[in-house]
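Researcher: Here's a chain I'd like modeled. Treat it as a single chain, no partners, no ligands.
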Amino acid sequence: MSAEKKAKKPDKRYYRKRVELFRLIDKIKLWPSRRGILHGIKTIEKLGDQAQITTHCNKAFMVNDSKNSRAARWLRNKWFKGVCGVCRIPDWKLEKYSSTQFKRQYGSLLTEKNEQIPP
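Model: Modeled as a single isolated chain. Structure tokens:
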């Protein structure tokens, strides 16, 4: 037997492309800054159409809920330059994020179990 365990590839996950930003952030728990640094999210406090996000490096800011905002586009397209050293995002989370795919016609809408989908 080899001393090293082979790490298995994470399963592909499919989410809808036009999911609300707060639901996507709740699920992924990552935030791309304007400089392209990927941060880990500690808490999200929803306040109507806005939310206060606190990262693991203790930065807090307000965010509007938008499907086509800069952050939503960067998360869907996986655009980032690096990872925050203070947040210390684990490798398994980055691998899981890189295997996630966003499709227009296929994938989870990230809805609650008792919530109905509008027509």
